[in-house]
Amino acid sequence: MDQDVMVPWVLQNKVNKKKNQLKEAAAEPETAPEPPKPEEPPVVWNRYYHLYKQGELEEDVVTAKGRVVESGYERDNWWAIISKE
């Protein structure tokens, strides 16, 4: 399995739609509402992820001169609480 991957992240249109509605309401509070606009396709951004293997995250922390306070695996993700040495 490849450890360096690009994962699609979809920007939800409803968030953008709500922001636009708030802007329009603040700018022109007494005008008639505009007719609904056709739905736009969602915006998709690709985000870089490095998928760690067991123990690899802790090794990187030590290499960076840090100290692992606590670490674990939860919901398909490795995590660590770290501190400076």
Automatic annotation (TrEMBL):
InterPro entries found in the cross-reference section: AlkB_tRNA_MeTrf/Diox, SAM-dependent_MTases_sf
Region ranges (Disordered): 18-41
Record's keyword terms, sorted: Methyltransferase, Transferase
GO biological process: tRNA methylation; tRNA wobble uridine modification
Gene Ontology CC, one term: nucleus
Endpoints of the signal sequence: none
A GO molecular-function annotation: tRNA (5-carboxymethyluridine(34)-5-O)-methyltransferase activity
Name of the featured protein: Uncharacterized protein
Species name: Sugiyamaella lignohabitans
